[in-house]
Amino acid sequence: MGIEIQNNLENSLAKKKIYINKITPIIASIISITAGIFSLITVIGSLKLAFYIALFAIFMGLSTLVIIVSIKRGKEKKFDNIDHLDKKDLEKALEKYLKRVNEQPEDVDALKMLISIYDRLGEKDKVKELNDQLDKVTGQKEFEFNLTKRIRLCQLEIHDLYFFDNFEWSFQPQMNVLLGRNGFGKSYLLRLLVFLLQKEINLADDFYKHSQENPFAKILLERDDKDEVILRSKVLFEKSIGKVPVMAVPSHRILDKSRRNVTLLLGEDNRDLRKNSAYHFLYQKSVEDLILGFYYQLCIAYLNEGKRFDIPIFNLIHKVLGELSDDEFRFYKIEPINGVQFKVDVITEGNDKPIPIQQASHGTLSVMAIFGLIYEYLKTVSPKVPEKELTRQPAIVFIDELDAHLHPAWQQKITRLLRENFPNVQFFVTAHSPLVVAGCKEGEVAVLKKQENGFGVHVYEHDFIGYEAKELYEKVFEIEEKDDTYLKHIAMSPFKEEIEEKIKQLEEKQRKKPLSEKDQKELDQLYDDIYYIGKAEDKFQQRLEYSTLRIENRKLKAKLKKMEAQRKTENHDING
């Protein structure tokens, strides 16, 4: 509604401006003629006669002006309704509205008229081209409008959508954690949410192509405390508020470690976080260009601030990584190279000497990417806000596989750090490890589970404050486990790829020359870890499948009891 009012106001002002520009010379002429007559007759000595002649001239001038404007408006009105125009008049109308669009490319009314005219003329390609242009114009206006509003998501409802059972998922205002096994659709569900909010029509087939006849997905939300709805059926968005600004961070957040320096990737045109903050996640693209862009901005900020690290963005990273690593992380030095590249050295946990930032651990790089990209996004969409206040700005942020590459001790702290450092952001995160739910409040944790017709969301209504690691596993996955070794190795499961990569590095080193005693012990330990992680995963899957079967068995028993009760009632009615 706000966008329509804005469009109408802009078009109305534009039309008035055109009329004023055309009327001004006529009025000026009338005034000049009147002044001339007044001067002439004043010279000949008859002031009274001059006055009456001047009034007559003004009257005639205004009458002429009214006639001209009426004729012009009549002609324009004639082109405003094209249903009864012949081909000659259609071509005149086409010329008129093409001129308007050339002068004002965002004139929504003129674009709509052009679409109608080309439709009457049977030019389908032009109709499609202009419809695309109209979508972009209205979409951009809606997006700009939404940027000025505080938006909070309230609920997602899924009905007859491929892969999922029917369910409702109520959202919390700050943290929303979605857990589940591989293949249960955590990332898929997150992408569906972002697709609905971004109104990314090109991706509709990803979610609706294999669905039943009448599927829909609906989001209930608040925009400046006013209730709104986004509703997508199989064919179209039946209700929408336009593109909603969100930041979506993909699961792969690691830099190419072979890079020697920080530089921008050439040819990348999707780094603008204001427009493309969800592009990489939706289209499952590498996010390395965004991460390098963030590091590059870090280097520029460092130089602009007199080569100081005591500025808001560095303070944020030092604070977060310092808390995770017991204050053993800090930026050490940034050096410009060739004017377009930078060498960035950091001190990290376990390293006494500075190392290139690319060589930091996967966990360190992942956390830096998450907090850095959120900060850069807030900076981009709130350019007038002082940097010291950026972290308090409202936003909606999605993070896929939040626990990826993080040590179990870091997993238990990460949601709290997000909550504390971005207190007005509404987060939606997925994870494999239940450790990330430590400290979550009532209703903030949900688990994807197999249901009768697909996967559904089960929300935990209790909090997870004060739980230890073992209790989190028992509570979330309904496993009563006394085997600490099992718990240790199942907790290490998210690091399987990192362990395998380390094994490959040591094996490569071993092929060149015998390993040192220290390296050999590390390799033996890694072999043990990878073996027992596999065994723990197998056991975990067996227990989870058994737990699922037990739940389904209970449901079947309940259905049988209900059917038996109904049968007894029917027999009683017949006998009675």
Biggest sheet details:
6 strands, mixed
What is the CATH class name of the largest domain? Alpha Beta
Alpha-beta classification: alpha/beta
* Strand content bin: 5-15%
Radius of gyration: 33 Å
Strand order of the largest sheet: 7-11-12-3-13-14
Task: Provide the CATH architecture of the largest domain.
Answer: 3-Layer(aba) Sandwich
- Mean pLDDT across all amino acids: 82
Question: How many domains, in number, for the residues?
Answer: 4
The low-pLDDT segments are: 1-19, 73-78
Task: Tell me the total number of β-strands.
Answer: 14
Determine the fraction of residues in helical runs and give it as a percent range. Answer: 40-55%
Q: What's the tally of helices? A: 17
- Silhouette: globular
End-to-end separation: 62 Å
The CATH H-level homologous superfamily of the largest domain: P-loop containing nucleotide triphosphate hydrolases
CATH T-level fold name of the largest domain: Rossmann fold
Annotation keywords:
five-stranded antiparallel beta sheet, alpha/beta, single chain, Rossmann fold, 55% helix, six-stranded mixed beta sheet
What features would you describe in this structure?
The structure is a single chain. The chain is α/β, with parallel strands linked by helices and about 575 residues long. The protein folds into 4 domains: about 1-145, no CATH class; about 150-240, Rossmann fold, CATH 3.40.50; about 245-465, 3-Layer(aba) Sandwich (Rossmann fold), CATH 3.40.50.300; about 480-575, no CATH class. Strand 5 (about 225-235) and strand 6 form a beta hairpin. Helix 1 packs antiparallel against helix 2, helix 10 (about 290-305) crosses helix 12 (about 360-380) and helix 11 (about 310-325) packs antiparallel against helix 12. The two termini are about 60 Å apart. The strands form 3 sheets. It has a 6-stranded mixed β-sheet, sandwiched between helices. The chain has helices at about 1-45, 45-80, 85-105, 110-120, 125-145, 185-200, 205-210, 275, 280, 290-305, 310-325, 360-380, 410-420, 470-475, 485-490, 495-510, 515-575; strands spanning about 150-160, 165-170, 175-180, 215-225, 225-235, 235-240, 245-250, 330-335, 340-345, 355, 395-400, 425-430, 445-450, 455-460. It is globular. The chain has 17 helices and 14 strands.
